[in-house]
Structures are given as structure tokens and as C-alpha cells.
Amino acid sequence: MSQLAVRNNDNPLLKPSDLRPSAEGLEIECLLNPGVFQFNGKTYMLVRVAEKARQREGYFSVPVLSGSGRMDVIDIPLSDPALDRSDPRVIRYHDDYYLTTLSHLRLLCSDDGHRFFEPPESVILRGEGPYESYGIEDCRVTQIDHTFYLTYTAVSPNGVGVGLITTVDWKVFRREGLTLPPHNKDCAIFERQIGQHYYMLHRPSSIFIGGNYIWLAESPDLRHWGNHRCIARTRSGKWDSERIGAGAAPVFTSAGWLEIYHGADESQRYCLGALLLDKDNPANVIARSDDPIMEPTAPYEQTGFFGNVIFTNGHTVHGDLLRIYYGASDEVICSADFSIDAILDSLR
Amino acid sequence: MSQLAVRNNDNPLLKPSDLRPSAEGLEIECLLNPGVFQFNGKTYMLVRVAEKARQREGYFSVPVLSGSGRMDVIDIPLSDPALDRSDPRVIRYHDDYYLTTLSHLRLLCSDDGHRFFEPPESVILRGEGPYESYGIEDCRVTQIDHTFYLTYTAVSPNGVGVGLITTVDWKVFRREGLTLPPHNKDCAIFERQIGQHYYMLHRPSSIFIGGNYIWLAESPDLRHWGNHRCIARTRSGKWDSERIGAGAAPVFTSAGWLEIYHGADESQRYCLGALLLDKDNPANVIARSDDPIMEPTAPYEQTGFFGNVIFTNGHTVHGDLLRIYYGASDEVICSADFSIDAILDSLR
């Protein structure tokens, strides 16, 4: 099926060294999983920037968000027995936990959809408050009327939930709190109401029974959500056997809502597939990809910070052209073009 | 602190043999965790009845809910290599999973709050549909105006979430779907609006970072929920170190909202404690029990299906008298009386 995706010849479009760290003492480890939108005739990308602390000899250094929203670095003596590094993602020191990398969201702009740069007045969205003290990640951007809805993964000692920020001008941002409690991520809001309700896709995880499935929820006001229904489960023995999650907002087509989603198998290989949801009742799944519509086959998709990963949560649509932007190997940002009709054909 | 609780001399009030199984071939294994409410001058209990299949020689038999809502029994030959009993809670047979017990909710009535019996027209609420095929459990009942809101644990292969049923007459029930996706339980709705919103407590669980904490959510309409905030976490080294969850709806007092909650430690010993929440802003925790207000000390609380457990999600309030009903050792139903003032004193 790999002929469905036409990769950009300039891939990767962005790598960690293309951006500057957000504070002294930090290094950008990875660029990941951008939300993408059009605004004032340009293409914008809200990219996840994962930073680690620059290491000092004899210390293990971790980035922390201070209460005032500043990034600091804490240096822990490697010889200190209170330092526990047994989990590579989370460091324990005495009774406190620290992530080895901390993510913020950074706005990048493009005239042509290929070359992205930081606008003169840089926009950096950091974690704020008690539900984001370990950073914010993997933002989906949905425009409804004149408002942009940013749904992102909020990470803190309270757990991993879904936060909402709204903006109309990309200058003033309104924090709307957690719309979904832990453990949840991969949340994408539909771009228009269906009947009386707004809809979103999300991905709760289960500690007992259940799994990492895609769910649908509905809302009267985009802040309060209910009537949660599971619309897609992992499929044993297939490419999406271990974990699935929504990409960006579904694309409205004459055949129904087309959703590009990621699926991983037991070896943590992430591919992309498609779901087609009923136009009037998106809880009704009309079709689903048997095989991936895109697999990690390019060198930059197979090798990197975490190899064999392609993950998308942002795209643009121009007629039949679906241009997805994706994180490759959890390290660099790429794009690939699809024909929407060809994806729909592959689902028949 | 055990002098706070005055146990009923008739404890246990109800045991599995007091009720009849809901269908042929079933046996009642446990009575658990009743929701409690007043209606038409009587005290009602919506008790969780956990049933297992009567076992046949040479088979392992499991209860199942058929699509039409009937209870059936499936007999699996013990010699069949496709039978996997390694998890005592969940049986695997080929690619299907079965719970060893399946719970429904049954309505019991009392004139005096001590002796409960099934009303002449029995009311049994069973799991229905794809989110309840493994049964429904641990229902909280909240009355707002003339409507009763039943929040319960919905168990299915899709995961463990929170379902909502409403009724005004306890004859006609309206299924309102899942108000919270997996993994979540212990959901209790406040009995009145605060400002513009309704509120509820709930207990999501985390697969990575976070834990089993009590969260608060708000809603404009009791069906759609947002602004999730964590109001109480487990406390390392204390009686509530491993897992905490709300009991019934908070009691409105002049000092604030008084919530009786359960906490378990690493040895799975379940005690009860109290939280006092700000009257106008229940996200603000004013006080919390250092020590339990009730511990499993009676013989029927220490020995049974799962010993050393007291768990409440139902009570009645008469002036200063708080009568909690609780499941003891996950097997029998008991009650104990508290003075609300004495609990508030213990929090000072």
C-alpha cells in the first residue's frame, strides 16, 4: 500500500538542530508530532519540542518547570543514593519524580508548506499549573468558526490527561482546563457540529480489561463531554494490535468522515491507517484499513530517537490533496502527500 | 478513632443466602456496596449482587449476559487446553474472555433502615449493551429535584467506565450512556448545583504517572463533564497509600461538603476516611482525615470473600445522624452510625 503516500523530497523538513532551545542549559532532543492549521493564508505548525538538560560531569541533570512557568535545570549528584534512574523516562530523587525530557509547543510558520520558520514574535506554549508540570505534548488544532481549539496531552504527577486551550488570534490564549481525566491522549475535535453536538475522538487506556482504543465523545459546548463510545479497538495479529489513537481532526468527505490514525504492534512499530465514519453518526464505522496506508520505510523513519515510528496529528487539505505532517522516529518532522480519493478507494 | 462508628448490632444486615439468584444455574457469591436513598418515606438500597455459575463436575462454568439481557451459563470442559484460568478474575477461552462472577443491581426496601426486603415487584438492573456485558457494579444514587441519578461501574471488554441511569419513579429507567470513559469508577454526583454547575467526584486510574486518585468534574447538564481536577491523592506510608475513591454523594454541612471516602493500603486493607470540601468551591479541600474514621475490626469485616474490607457508597442523613451502609469483606451488607459533628470535630 506504500504507493498511497508520496513523501516530500525535502524530508526531514525539520530536525532538532533547526530550532533554538527555549532556555539556558537546555538542549533540544527531539521534534515531534505537530498540529497543523491554516491562518491568514499561511500554513502553521505547532510542533512538540522535547528538551533535556545539558549534562554536567558527575551529575544527572533534569529540566523542571518552575511555578512561574520558567524552565530550570536541577543537577543531581550521580553518587547520591537517593537518585533512582531505573526507568529511563522518569527519574526518582528522594520522593520527587522528574521526566528526563520536558516538552513544550512551538509555533512555526510557512508560506509554501515546506519551509517552516519561527515567526518574528515567537510563540511558545509551555505547561502551566498542576496538570502540566511535566510539559504538554502532541497538540491537535481544530478550527470552528473563528476559534482554534488546541487539544493536547497534559503531563503531571496527577497523571496524563487531555488539556484544552482556545485562541482566536494566536496571541492571546485561554486555558480551559482538562477536558478528559487520566489516562487519556490523542484527542481530536471534529471541525463542525453534527446535529446538536460537537464530537471528538480520544484514546483512554485501561489498567484492567480493555486496552488502548479509539473512543468518540460528544459535547454541547466543547468544554463538557459525555456519551463516550468505543469506535475502534486494536486488532490481534495485525499492524495495529497493541495501541491505536486518532490523528488530527477527521476530514469531511462525501463518503463520510475520514480519520487518519496511528497503530502500533507489539514491537512498537507505528504505522498509519484510515477509518471512515458515518457522516451523520460518527459512532458508526463504515470502513477501516486492513493494511497500513503508510509504514516507516524511509531511513529517517526507521532510525532515530525511537525508530520505526511515523505518527501524525496534523494535516492540510486542498481539494483531493491531503498533506500530512508527521513525526518520524520521534525525532524529526516530515510530510507526505495523499490523494483522499485513493485512500477512500483503499477502504472499499 | 474507632469510637466514631457505632456498628449496627444486627450486622451483617444482609448476606448472600438472603436473596435468590437472578436466574437458573446461578449462585450468589457476594453482596456488595449498596447505593442508598429515601423514596416515598422508605429507605431503599440498590445492592450489587455478584453471581457465579453453579459448577458441574468436569467443567468450568461461567455466567454470561446474552444480547437480550438474559443470564446464561457457559460450561467449558476443564480438560480443554483453550481454557486459561491463570487470572482468578478473568477466564480466557479461545479468544473470548469471561468474568468468574457477574454483578447486577437489585432494589431492596426497608421501613426501619435495618431490615431490607425485595419489594413485591422486584427491580433488577442488569448490564445492557456493549459497555456493560460484564455487568454493572457499585452504584451511587443522587437525587436532584425529582430525578434520581444512578452512577455505576460499567464493565465490558471495552474497559471499566462510569455509566449513568436516570429514573423518577424506580419503574422506568433511562440509560444515559457512559459519562466517563475507562479506566474510571467510584463516581458520585453532588446533590445540588454550586453556582452554574453540577459537580461529581470520580476515580480515574493511570497506566503511567499518576495513580488512583479522587478527581472533581463539573457539568452544565449532568450528562457532559469537564474541567477535571485532582482533589486528593494517595498518601505514602498512610492507611490510604495505594488507592482512594469517593463514597456516596457528599453531605452538605455548615462547614462544607463532607465526603466519606475509602482508602486502601498496599495490603489491600480498606478503611473509611473523610474529606471536607469548600462549600462554594469543592475543588478546595479544607481538611482530610489523618487516621481512618472506621477500620475493618469486626469479625465480618475481617473475614469473608475478600477480608479486611469496608467499602461504602450509600448513606442516609437525619439531622446529625449519618448512617452509612457498607459492604464488609466484599460479601455482606452492614450499617454503622456516625455523628456528623463528631466527624467534623475529628477533622479539626
List keywords for this structure.
five-stranded antiparallel beta sheet, 348 residues, homodimer, Tachylectin-2, Chain A, globular
Explain how this protein is built.
2 copies of one chain form a homodimer. Chain A has 348 residues and is mainly beta. Chain A has a single domain, classed as Glycosyl hydrolase domain, family 43 (Tachylectin-2, Chain A, 5 Propeller). Chain A is 3% helix and 51% strand. Chain A has 2 helices and 26 strands. The first copy, chain A, has helices spanning 299-302, 340-347, and strands at 6-7, 26-39, 42-53, 59-65, 71-77, 83-84, 90-93, 96-99, 102-110, 124-125, 136-144, 147-156, 159-167, 173-180, 184-189, 198-204, 214-219, 226-232, 243-246, 251-253, 256-264, 270-277, 285-288, 310-318, 321-328, 332-339. In chain A, strands 19, 20, 21, 22 and 23 form a 5-stranded antiparallel β-sheet that branches. Chain A has a 4-stranded antiparallel β-sheet with strand order 1-26-25-24. The longest helix of chain A has 8 residues, at 340-347. The radius of gyration of chain A is 20 Å and the shape is globular. Chain A starts with 5 loop residues before the first strand and ends with a helix. In chain A, 48% of the residues are buried. The mean pLDDT of chain A is 96. Chains A and B meet through β13, β14, β17 and β18 of A and β13, β14, β17 and β18 of B.
